[in-house]
Hints:
Blueprint: H1 3-38, E1 44-50, E2 55-64, E3 71-74, E4 79-81, E5 83-84, H2 88-93, E6 105-106, E7 116-117, H3 118-128
Parallel strand pairs: 1-5
Antiparallel strand pairs: 1-2, 2-3, 3-4, 6-7
Helix pairs in contact: 1-3
Amino acid sequence: xxxxxxxxxxxxxxxxxxxxxxxxxxxxxxxxxxxxxxxxxxxxxxxxxxxxxxxxxxxxxxxxxxxxxxxxxxxxxxxxxxxxxxxxxxxxxxxxxxxxxxxxxxxxxxxxxxxxxxxxxxxxxxxxx
Length: 129
């Protein structure tokens, strides 16, 4: 097997592992949405932060997972990273968020308190009401 074939195979395996992780995390996210609705925790309008630091409106509604409001779960169970590219126009028009596959470990490689199991972040949000 050539080096290129080996690299392609490793990439395939990594992608498959990431897809499996996202499917597992999505189950937790879906449970969170159901529990939030059952507890009467209403979703709110989501805002995003541009790379420039400006906060802008978005087209989505949901629940923030982090205190710094950089991650959220949409009311439909989508996972959103709320730090987005944009410029002058987006400051006035807002941004359209695109869902990302949810990870099992939020902020992998980040500082303490910024990373952890997605289940913990979801439970903290439920406990906060």
